[in-house]
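ARCHIVE CARD
SHELF: 3
SLOT: left
DATA:
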Amino acid sequence: MLNAVRTGCRATAVILAVTACSVDEAPESGIAPGRADAGPLNTTYGIDGSPFTLRDGRFEMPAAPDSAAKITLKVFGAPAYGELDDDRETDAAVILVYQGGGSGTFYYLAAALGGEDGYRGTNALLLGDRVTPQFLRIQNRAIAIDFRDRGPAESFATAPTIDMTHFAILDGQSLIAVPSETEQSGWVTYGHEVRTFAPCDRDDESWLLGQSPALPDIRASYEKSMSRRPPYAPLFMVLAGSFMDPPHDGFGADHSSAFFAAKLVEVNPAGNCRDEFVSVETPLAGAIIESPLIIKGRARGTWFFEGDFPVALEDAEGNELSRSFLSAQGEWMTKEFVPFTGTLSFTNPVEGLRGRLIFRKDNPTDRPELDDSTAIPVIVGVGSP
């Protein structure tokens, strides 16, 4: 099955109607060249490495010599149109239904790339056996398909009831599945030639893929939230999506991974990777800080020991520039949030540099499993980093 997103889908569109047509004979090997009159219903698609050329949306051949059983491949419903490969030619996405003469009815997702000589079909990705397609669309150079499937233990006699959404994007001329979607918290940086996501649970920054359906929302939210902050300041977001290989070229090729953002879940300018324990009110992430720096916020009482916990300032390479303590402004022997404040002094650099404020849970024991920390990015000193 297509390895892609398995979440509850929002679309409740009416199930598409099957296109009924006729064909001639089985294709020869290889994907057939496009023709000037070749639309998405009249081109060749690859199913498990074998080419199938459709005529008026349908392919048919005997399942065996002198057999009445037929192998059929047909387009289900209407194609979805949009831009997939950024060549300013209209492309299409199609749902294909394959029946090989047995009891199975297999649904596939494929693309047809528009060009001067017509449409050229891609390989097809399996959705499943006897699923129920709901809604097909092209969004921000990605294909999304909502459909219903069954649970692993359910028989094919059971009607599909589990809502799913799968995504696919182009890799060159091939259609590839987007891996299963998960929610990821982290820092988004957006600007000229920069489009990165630094997840909380990874040490590296991922390139935000241009085909991400959530990219327009991410950009709009970033520009709105960061209008009064320095350029390229990170913003804390929660994204639903998938990690993938980086692009082969462009600025994204300099990164070790990429992130396909299917949905923008949350934007929190005051957030951090452990904000269920520490909430920093000032400075905000991405702020320009100068010495002496007054730090304020709230933390769970479990982060304090004897009424305080340590804070440190590090540069981008992890070198410690200063350290101090933040003190509880109230009873700290509680699991609830307690206000804190403190002052951090350091040498102001001549030019601004990127750094991090590290908030560490005070751990008076020798047990490393009780250690915890969170950080917010800042710019140290005046000037461009």
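SLOT: right
DATA:
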Amino acid sequence: MASMKNCKACGREIAKSAKMCPNCGAKQGGIGKIIGIAVAVIVVLGIIGAAAGGGDGGKDAKIDNSGAAKKEASKKTGKAETEEKSNENGEEVVKVGGSFEAKGLKVTVNDADLKYKLKDDKYGLYKLDDGYHYVKVDFTFENTADSGDKFVSISDFDCYADNTKCEQQYVTEDTGDFVNANLSSGRNVSFSTLYAVPDGVKSLELEYTSNIWTDEKVFVKLK
């Protein structure tokens, strides 16, 4: 006896090998094939989606590795790694060797000597009061604007020791006779400043007003 099955349309019993129901004329087997193809497509799409997700993860890993590579490179070159930092008030903070940009000027804090000794003061003309010492800081200012002059002065920074303002000292034998200048686009100038700082201070920083209209400031952490 021939193997039998039920028609998918009318439900009547027909030969299993029949491609068309002799009772209602409905085609047999097409739905099953479509379902099989659909399942295969879903599986393939799932594999492609998983691969795409893995690709995103790899991209993130490369970004992290890139950051690690920069740190490793900075160690090899001996150059300070450039990072944006801020204090609790959200104001920009840089360290010695770092730089910042403000009002079309790039300002670099080249070096700082926290226990500076005067080169030549045999007559004691620049001797500080007891309990004070000199701090010397070296700067470079560069006009990075496309056009226009930028004013630069040795008084652009204020010095604070434990939040108390320190007096700037003018010793041309050690700092040179530069006072101020109007830098044209692309020009730069380097100079040094001296400050009278109390002995034993715990915190020492310079303050630069980057925007006089909004009173935004940049702080240079010396100690």
